[in-house]
UniProtKB/TrEMBL annotation:
CDD domains, per database record: Peptidase_M17
Similarity annotation: Belongs to the peptidase M17 family.
A GO molecular-function annotation: aminopeptidase activity
Keywords annotated in UniProt: Aminopeptidase, Hydrolase, Manganese, Protease
Residue span(s) of domain Cytosol aminopeptidase: 310-317
Protein name stated in the entry: Leucyl aminopeptidase family protein
Coiled coil residues, start to end: none
Species this protein is from: Sphingosinicella rhizophila
Cross-referenced Pfam families: Peptidase_M17, Peptidase_M17_N_1
Matching InterPro entries: Leucine_aapep/pepB, Macro_dom-like, Peptidase_M17_C, Peptidase_M17_N_1
Keyword set includes Protease: yes
Length: 465
């Protein structure tokens, strides 16, 4: 974690603070007409017209000042409408005039994120603290911001600082903080129990050896849920090696693991009444004489044999063994996150995770949660007619479809082979990265789909008052 986010969102006890007025395009003319001449002059001089993310500094009668911020809709604030101001305002205390910040408090916190761990002289920035008259919302907002910050930090770390052992250390630290138990399977035990995970990570050096990390928390009498995250800490492509451009961002290929670690933290810190099972298959897809080869056949934990058509389709392999374990332990709901396919990015771009679910109601609930929270998801079909694309002449299934069509769908269909119909399951094919900055969302690692998944979990397993 970076700086303590608790300092950035505080209860409003009428302490002195700079006022932030909010106005949208529709209400701008009326707002401006009601202002004194000195305010109108200042607004016009700064070309402020109430557009989203615009800001103008307003002079006070003496030495004080305030600011007016343009938002899309003053009656329905988004998480991001105060984020630009939080990035550029000077250090100090602020309050929104006449109202609470509502969902925009989250963006205020996240806008002050920065990843400068490896910079010798990071630019100093003092905290901009937002006061809120809604103290009941502070704890959950802080926990959400902390979860997203965790995801960003983990994804932003370079691969030489975030290998399988480092992911294990994060899980152990989280377990120690929240009173959970961790089990790690590696070495010969991994080869026997989770052969697909072992095969994908076989080429890595000893200090980056593959493992399955499991965390369990909660009352065994509560409903059992599983969170499964792809933890490929670097993906060279294996013997089907990527080109340099394709490899450049592969430190983020453990983004699925980062998402489920963030979600697990939310579950445990809020004491959601569930029995949590977190599974992270942590590997490096490297190249050596021990590497998985195209044409190899590996028997999965479930007993399904898999012919390797492409060693760069490794994420679905490690997820398959982890999903099989989650099923054996009788989870009633499984959510998996993975930076799984370039095909999802081609179809939907970087901002929209592809969502697959084996039950329409689950897909609809997640999509609606994403829409409500400005954390969008796009439901995609588990189109069974494409299952033949994964056929193998010598094994039960191939790991990669030929022809390059429907890549995200066939990857999801592969995973579905390892989850029975009687267990609710959703798969998030997420990018976990922002290629360009937006207010509150800097360039780099990010949580995409996490807030929607948390809304589903918190609604489905609601805490009693």
């Amino acid at each position: 974690m970076k700086a303590d986010l608790k300092t950035l969102l505080q209860p409003d006890k009428e302490q002195p603070a700079t006022l932030l007025q909010l106005v949208d395009k529709n209400g701008f003319d009326g707002w401006l007409a009601a202002q004194p001449e000195r305010i109108r002059e200042a607004v016009n001089a700064q070309s402020f017209r109430g557009d989203g993310y615009q800001m103008a500094i307003l002079p006070g009668e003496k030495a004080d000042w305030s600011a007016v911020l343009g938002v899309a809709n003053v009656d329905a604030l988004s998480p991001w409408c105060l984020a630009k101001a939080a990035e550029v305002l000077p250090e100090g205390l602020y309050r929104v005039e006449g109202r609470g910040p509502g969902p925009a408090a989250l963006g205020w916190l996240l806008a002050q994120y920065g990843f400068d761990r490896f910079k010798a002289n990071p630019a100093p920035k003092g905290p901009r603290t937002l006061l809120t008259p809604e103290p009941a919302q502070i704890d959950e907002t802080l926990l959400l911001a902390e979860a997203i910050t965790l995801v960003r930090d983990l994804v932003n770390l370079p691969a030489n600082h975030m290998g399988p052992a480092d992911l294990e250390a994060v899980a152990r630290s989280l377990a120690a903080d929240c009173g959970a138990a961790v089990t790690v399977t590696s070495g010969r035990d991994l080869e026997k129990a989770f052969p697909l995970i072992a095969a994908v990570g076989a080429a890595a050096t000893t200090d980056r050896s593959p493992r399955l990390i499991e965390l369990e928390w909660g009352n065994p009498a509560h409903p059992r849920i599983a969170l499964v995250g792809k933890g490929v800490c670097f993906d060279s492509g294996g013997l089907d090696i990527k080109n340099s451009a394709g490899m450049r961002l592969m430190k983020k290929d453990m983004g699925g693991a980062a998402h489920v670690l963030g979600l697990a933290r939310l579950v445990m810190k809020t004491r959601l009444p569930v029995r949590l099972h977190l599974l992270v298959p942590a590997v490096e897809n490297a190249v050596s004489g021990a590497a998985l080869r195209p044409g190899d056949v590996v028997k999965s934990r479930k007993g399904i044999t898999v012919e390797i058509g492409n060693t760069d389709a490794e994420g679905r392999l490690v997820l398959a063994d982890a999903l099989a374990k989650a099923v054996e332990d009788k989870a009633e709901l499984i959510l998996d996150f993975a930076t799984l396919t370039g095909a999802a990015r081609i179809a939907l771009g970087p901002d929209l995770p592809a969502l697959f679910a084996n039950e329409d109601g689950l897909a609809e609930a997640l999509a609606e949660a994403g829409k409500a929270l400005s954390d969008p998801l796009w439901p995609m079909p588990l189109w069974t007619d494409y299952a033949d694309m994964l056929a193998s002449d010598i094994a039960d299934i191939g790991n990669a479809a030929e022809g390059g069509m429907a890549g995200s769908i066939t990857a999801a269909l592969f995973l579905q082979k390892f989850v029975p119909e009687n267990i609710l399951w959703a798969h998030f094919d997420t990018f976990a990265w922002r290629a360009s900055a937006r207010p509150g969302r800097p360039k780099g690692g990010d949580a995409l789909g996490l807030r929607a998944a948390w809304r589903l979990l918190s609604d489905r397993y609601a805490l009693s008052d």
